[in-house]
Amino acid sequence: MSTILVVGANGTVGSALAAQLEAAGHQVRRGTSQVAGAGQVQLDLVSGNGLAEAVAGADAVFLMAPPGYVPQDTLLVPVIDAARGAGVKKVVLMTAMGADADPTSPLRRAELHLEVSGIAWNVIRPNWFMQNFRTFWLHDILTQGAVRLPTGQGKGSFIDARDIADVAAVLLTSDSYVNQAFNLTGDEALDHDEVVVLLSNASGTSIRYEDITPDAMRAGLLAAGLPVGYADFLVMILGYFKLGYSAAVSPAVQQITGHAPRRFVDFANEFATTWQRDTADVG
Length: 283
Description:
Elements: E1 3-7, H1 12-23, E2 27-32, E3 40-42, H2 51-55, E4 60-63, H3 73-85, E5 90-94, H4 106-115, E6 120-126, H5 138-144, E7 146-149, E8 155-156, H6 161-172, E9 180-184, E10 190-191, H7 192-203, E11 208-211, H8 214-223, H9 228-242, H10 252-257, H11 264-270
Parallel strand pairs: 1-2, 1-4, 2-3, 4-5, 5-6, 6-9, 7-11
Antiparallel strand pairs: 8-10
Helix pairs in contact: 1-6, 3-4, 7-11, 8-9
């Protein structure tokens, strides 16, 4: 079995991927910027600390940039170079749907660097995560009874992070799709009015969608402590969502894993209690 470094192993995708690889018998190195515990290696992409040790002896690497940092290529390119120097056989890089639209964008620069690195590679570009409604957008749901985003009536083919992990696991342990890139989506495109109906029905709680301005979104992100550059990046890509760039549906999850992507209605029902709240506390 392979030794696989999973960068971001404590994150939404990385944790699911690491567990799946271990269950299949692979030796997993869980890369984390925190103090390393059992089965973990300390790896700080910002400083580069621990990079040489993390890639040494690894057969494959799952790579993604930590949230909150722009430009991402300054963090990703050194890992690709270190992996090549260490003799890593394959790198699966997770960027984002639409990253290939602009050859000068940081994520696309990282993709292009990997493509010419000489390492066998895959790039996966997931659409917006279903899990965002359990994490980033949850505070407004619980305190305001609303999903508040500047996305208008734009639609998104939201994907469950576990489907991303399923795809990554296949690509890391197989050469069937070597040197190919894939957009990863769910099997339907929903606007946020449709999303809140599914969340409301599942939780038994009334949740509405509020279309806010980009400036209001940016102010909220900054108030939550996000760096200015990353807040601007999120507002920018939410603008592309509004314009319809997130609506495309890809067959890649089915093609690579053999199973259909998880549906949003099933995700909502599975985690229904997440969005339940005391309505007396909602302003």
